[in-house]
Amino acid sequence: MINTAQLLADEAQYCSFGDTVHYVNPPKIFTGCEGSYMYDDAGTPYLDLQMWYSAVNFGYKNPRLEAKMIEQLKELPQVASQYLHPTKIELAKFIAQDAEKKWGHKGRVHFNVGGAQAIEDSLKVVRNASNGKSLMFAFEGGYHGRTLGASSITSSYRYRRRFGHFGDRAQFIPFPYPFRRPKGMTAEEYSDQIVREFARKFENEYHAIWDPKTNQCEYAAFYVEPIQGTGGYVVPPPNFFKGLKKVLDDHGILMVVDEIQMGFWRTGTLWSVENFGVNPDVLVFAKALTNGLNALSGLWAREELINPTVFPPGSTHSTFASNPLGTALGLEVMKMTHEIDFGRQVRESGAYFLEGLKELQKRHKEIGDVDGLGLALRAEICTDDGFTPNKALLDKMVDIGLEGGLEYQGQKRGLVLDVGGYYKNVITFAPSLMITRAEIDEAMVLLDQLLTKAKQA
User: Fold this and answer.
1) What domain of life is recorded for the organism (predicted)?
2) Buried/exposed 199-216: b ≥16 CB within 10 Å, e otherwise
């Protein structure tokens, strides 16, 4: 047994509060994990429906991936980043060949550690390819990280507010949010309107971004999440990105796709952008590449953007980039998920989960919207009118879930949820992609119980 009170007292004195731990008070201490569950020091299971922000897509303590890490630990655990090792090359080849097969472009893979760091590298690739243009487009509701560069293309001002002026701040464009679209429009009509409004910026020089005499745009790239992550797992209409990409291609603007949260099968495809019929120019990945066992991230870019002539050695550097523990794990993730029709498994589990949420919605009018793609799912918590955001109710749900006082089949249970959305009223579900039907059934019982308790609190 741990001394929780002493640990929390020490944490309050010695740990920075600058990370996200203190969104919940008091912070929760976990001591174990396995499969779809986290465990506290009393052994209470907490069904985890967010899996470390979609970093542990393949379940806690995945036996195959843990075995690979131990094997690599014994074989080659460390090597300086200026030298090569086999799995770096093999993993890059796997990702690049898969991209070429899908999108018809040769490309290369560049590694780093952490999603925000890979975003930083992508900004270097883009700025270098555009002769130093530093301005980008991005979406309202978009999230790309909290380093200085990533904050400049992340829509939330609160991540920039205390850190000075951001001269390279992105121009933010509305994202088609079907549940909160204008009245009288279908989701597709709303999507088309956003594309038209964006295209209007290029009609003449007085819309401030386009020089028709030289056919040049002041902006180098558009950073997109195909499905918004922190923004609340918002799924755009299927026609949206095709329209947007045509505008970008017509005006020489690169599309950089952020797959940090939605990549590695979360939506039923390796990359979520595959659901929308467009080809990226740059693609950034992280999180589930190593199932949370090692910090490794990277990007894929088209050959003409990243070949050694235009992006030579030393263009970026990280001591731990392409570390052998991470690349061995990443390669094993790719092999493991390509041995079977993994996407079909995810899509079928997602359909079952979504059907459960729809049944839950019938019993609780506070669930205003449910939607999703694969096992990236959302439930928007509202007041009893089914539309007005109800952050307070969701906050209560999160707190009660982490108390570990729910019940399932006569046993104590907890529930781990993640909060997202423009109004912080959306449960963003990212369960293990290995989740069983029985665990999904358990999730629905616990969510029903949790909503009832929170409304009574």
Assistant:
1) Bacteria
2) bebbeeeeeebbeeeeee
